[in-house]
Structures are given as C-alpha cells and as structure tokens.
Amino acid sequence: MKKIPACLIALSFILFLAFPGLAETPAASTAECGVMVWKVAAKDKTASASYFIGTIHNLEPKHFTNMAAILKLIDSCEVFVMEADTSKAASEASELSKYTQYPEGGNLKSDLSADLYAKTIAFMKKNFNIPEEQVDRMKPLWVSMLVQMGLEPPVAKLMDDIFKEKVGERGIKTAFLESWLAGCKLPSFIPLEEQIGSLKETIDAPEKIIEASAKLKSAYLSGNVEKLTLAALDSESGNKYPMIRKALYPDRHALWLPELEKHLKAGGAVIAVGVGHLIGESSLLESFKKKGYTIEKIESK
Known about the structure:
Largest sheet: 6 strands, mixed
Distance between the termini: 55 Å
Number of domains: 1
Structural class: alpha/beta
Strand order of the largest sheet: 4-3-5-2-1-6
Number of strands: 6
C-alpha cells in the first residue's frame, strides 16, 4: 500500500491554522485595504516597540494598500518571527503519519456512514487524485482540511511568501514559534466525533464553507476588528467543535507565549501570525494586554 502524501497533508494544516477556508471570491476581487498590524509596547518602556502582523493566507497581496510600509517595517526589524519552521518538513515527513493516519487496524471507512465515506472518496479522487486505499488510512480531521483546500481557487502568491522573500533578500534574523511537526500534533488529540462532524459538514454543505470564507475575507478587507472577530470566532462551526478551536488557538498560544514574550522584552521584533491568533478573548494580544503591555492597532493609510 502506498503511503499517504504527508507533505500535502502538512501543507493543508499549515494553511488551515490561522483561518480555515479563506477562498478568493469575485465580490472581493476589487476590494483593497491595509494589512492588519498592531504595535506592542513593552511594560517597562525600556525596549523598543514590536509589531504583530495579522496575516491571511489565501488573499493575494495585490489587495493590500500598505504592503510597501509593511515591507519597510520588516526591513528595519531586529528579528522577524513566524509561526512554523518548515525547513525540516521534507526530512520529517514520515513522522507526520503518526498523527494523521489511523493506527494499525483502524480506518476511515469503519468510522463514517457509507454515504459520507463514498462522497469523501469521490471528492479526494477528483480534487487530489488520491486513491481510496490512501484516504482510508487518514483520520477525519485531515481529510476535512484537504477537502476545504479543494474548495479554494489557487492564489498566485501568498502574503507569507512576500515576507519570506524580503527576509531572505536582506538577511534578516528569523525565529519561529513552533516546528511544523509540533503544530501538526495538536489536532491529533481532538475527539473523533468532532473530527467526523467537521468532515460531514464540509462534504455535505460545501457552499456554507465558501460562504463563511467570503464573510471572513470581507471582514478582513473592511479593516474592522470587531466585524472580523464576529465572523471568525462566533461562527456556527466554531461553536459546534470547541475542541478543534481549542487545539488550533488556545493550546498553541499557551506554547507560544513564553517565546513571544522574550522577543517583546528584547524589542524591535516583527511577528507575523495568522490574524485568527490576534482577535477574540483568547488571542495573543489579549494575553499580552493582561500582562500589562500596551496594544495599539495601526491604521493603514
């Protein structure tokens, strides 16, 4: 039996982490706004300020009016911090199967209804050309993430790619909040019923996924944090699957906070994470606000 394409699964998770399903839609193709940025001032005022950039993974940089200013900010930073270090993804890809595949004796077919299983197999074959024997070894959550990827049109160049190019060209010091494998481990502990529920919702009602994507993107393009928070964190799916949300946000934040605080105390850091990590009551910014840091959203010009 062939192995699951681990790198493809890892990519789906990395893109999914900040916001699931941010698909490009015709209605937003002409909208423009600034990339969301927050200034964070250290508690003791002795270190220079740092900045959080709220990225959105599936919206092309052409939509953003302040990209030149963002690149200038990165150019002048002491360290550029990103979510996951993907440099070892190829060498560690075999490890991913421990978290994405069923253990020996388990399979997707035994956990899904006959109808849902058939629909899932058909979708994966059509969109990714992955045969049934491979899909059958995958846990439901990972299949759900790949299905959501399949609902999205490709983006020519991601915002993250622009930032990485800038950092590489200038030789800017970089740091990461987690290894790509560490990030992939967390959702493996989500209850099976939530994994199946997420997959069923995605397969049975893809139009709802696309509609939610459009609302999220529209909210980001509006520049309105309250609107974005409502769209992203008060969604029906988020309330249905609390353990998925917990794994993707609060659990990861708890692991990131000590490293982030080191950079904030040193000052001069630019930190790029999915904007979903920067909004809502359990966000990184709220955590630092409670610690006494001053948070200021920078309005784009």
